[in-house]
Amino acid sequence: MKKRNKYREIEDFLADESFRLWMRSKNDMAGWEDWTLDHPKRAKLVEEARLWLLAMKVPEHDLTQEQLDDALQNTWLKIEQKEQSPKRENKLIKVWNDGWFGKIAAVLVLGLLSFYAYTNYFTAANTDFYQEQIVAHAEADGLLEQINNSNKPQIINLSDGSSVLLQPKSKLSYPKVFMGNERKVYLSGEAFFEISKNPQKPFFVHANEVVTKVVGTSFRIKAYTNDSDVEVLVRTGKVKVNSEKAYSKSSQKEIVLLPNQALRFERKNQTFKKITDITTDKSISSSVRSIEQLSFDFTDIPVSQILKTIELAYSVEIDYPKQELKKCHLTTSLNDQPLPEKLKIICKSIGNNSSYTMNGNQITILSKGCN
Amino acid sequence: MSLKNHILHTGVLDDNKLWQDLKAGDEKAFSTLFKRYYGNLIQYGNSFSPHAEKIQDCVQDVFTDIWIYRNSLSDTVVVKAYLLSCVRKRIVRLQQRDKVFNKATSMDAVTFLLDFSVEQQLISDELTVAKVEHLNKLLNILPSRQKEALFLKYHHGLNIDEIAAILNVNYQSASNLLHRALVNIRKEWNINVTLLMVLMMNWV
């Protein structure tokens, strides 16, 4: 600290980090106050330097933690897109050079492609994006596919704890386990998503020409191959929607949707239309599913009734010890939670080591009654 | 002394360590540096352009390139100065490109639009308020580059070499920019402060 004894100009003070710290936050770690009082002559310079600092305030940036996380996530996304574009070509070439195996694969892919081209040209006017994407990604990601040919919604639990309620005549392709920095699924038809929160691994739903990105939230997508529109409707949280084209080019024309906002993609003109008041939109409000209307806010409600609400919302059957849970009431908010999370919270609230098992749409709760 | 110094500069030491880790492919180090400087860089970027979204894109692109080309990054950088410099260069490039497309005549570098404000909370008496507000006005009408140099030096604590590199001028010019800003203001301010004090005396 001998250095400061030679300070003659206010610049010297302004440039001294410990001095700025003292002036701005009263943090006098370097003993500036004593030093100034030691020598009356110093006081004048110190006072002037102080005025300078007071007149040079720079506003603190006002980013929230959430904005920061969003920005970081978006940057990883950009990195991935930039890294992947050259790599993917290399991989393709390698497979090609891998001898007879590669040749067979190529023939198969070609065969598949021409089959779909055939069905597309001669059956439907709209492109079957789902199949194209599945073909494009199946080799790398090892996708599982669930098709709902029944007339009731089906529940699908994903490896990250998210749940998807798949409507009739719809299909979803998803990896057995989500690898890498993001979670990606492919939808054809309609489904309601409840995504478990994980800012490090954004969740993407590819549905026809539309890509929807979320961190943790619930929303519905309607994207039937033969429909003229694609619809995304948000119930909780925030999602970002992009066109498949813009997404693959990593251009940033995302549209942000908040709860009870919707977006319609008109496939004919390739345009987006944002719907801020869904109650006025006939097509959307008429197709609201029970799961979206039910409230999962429970205040001192019997467990049996809570489970009934879940049965209704997810089209599942829940088996539970009715006698033991007769007198149990719970107060809890389960909105914005995927089905497994809801069940976990309920079991935990009941206590007594209660647990659940799930097999397709059959859920069994094991419990010896509540505390 | 050495302890105090150490505490004051841990930020810097830490930066270098994180930078080395980032170069070695450590995603956590990247994220930490990102979170540490993103806000500062957005603020700096916004002082050149009213288009907040473009600036966000621009800062994120800077980080994207840093990660992708991490193997060819220099070992010895002052991380903060380097990041500020990258962001500024990118904005200059973008604006020049826009200007080419818009066929505008001026190809000047960017203009620093940020205004300093007054630290009201730390002032209790009126005379000081008047003095500081006056000084603040003088600071804010400085030429763009002088103001930017002051911002980089006294807000971000960069040294003259680093400022020269960012403003793309030599050491002497950067030093002159800073010096001139202070000398001019002090001259005008001192005259006015004397006047001000006389006035205030009369009021009381």
UniProtKB/TrEMBL annotation, chain A:
Lyase keyword on record: no
Pfam families for the chain: FecR, FecR_C
Transmembrane segments: 100-118
Natural source organism: Flavobacterium flevense
Name of the protein described by the UniProt record: Anti-sigma factor
Gene3D superfamilies (UniProt xref): 2.60.120.1440, 3.55.50.30
Residue span(s) of domain Protein FecR C-terminal: 296-365
Keywords for this protein: Membrane, Transmembrane, Transmembrane helix
GO molecular function: sigma factor antagonist activity
Domain annotation FecR protein: ranges: 156-240
Coiled coil: none
From TrEMBL, chain B:
GO MF term (any one): sigma factor activity
Domain of life per record: Bacteria
Pfam families named in the record: Sigma70_r4_2
Sorted UniProt keywords: DNA-directed RNA polymerase, Sigma factor, Transcription, Transcription regulation
Cellular compartments per GO CC: DNA-directed RNA polymerase complex
GO biological process, one term: DNA-templated transcription initiation
RNA polymerase sigma factor 70 region 4 type domain sequence ranges: 136-183
Sequence similarity: Belongs to the sigma-70 factor family. ECF subfamily.
Full protein name: DNA-directed RNA polymerase sigma-70 factor
Organism of this sequence: Flavobacterium flevense
